[in-house]
Amino acid sequence: MSVTVQLTKAAIADLDRLPAADREHVTDDLRMLAARPIGGPPRIKRLKGAGFPLYRLRSGDSRILYRIDEAVVTIMRVINRRDLERTLRQLGSR
Fold this sequence. Notes:
Layout: E1 4-7, H1 9-17, H2 20-35, E2 44-47, E3 54-59, E4 62-69, E5 72-80, H3 84-92
Parallel strand pairs: 1-5
Antiparallel strand pairs: 2-3, 3-4, 4-5
């Protein structure tokens, strides 16, 4: 199942702020998502508590938050693992 991966403006800004080596690693993982958006643990996990199905992909010290709508994977944010809880609260309040 191949899907289209699109990034929100916030995700693009997050990606631009990453160091070059981390950005390359995250970009590789985004390509992987296009081929297989729902994988098994431990790297991909469905998060509970959001108003819509939200997934988290571990990519080094970064976390990629995304949602799946039919054949489109929307990357919501690319954040540092330390900021995960705060970002999830912000996404849940929207």
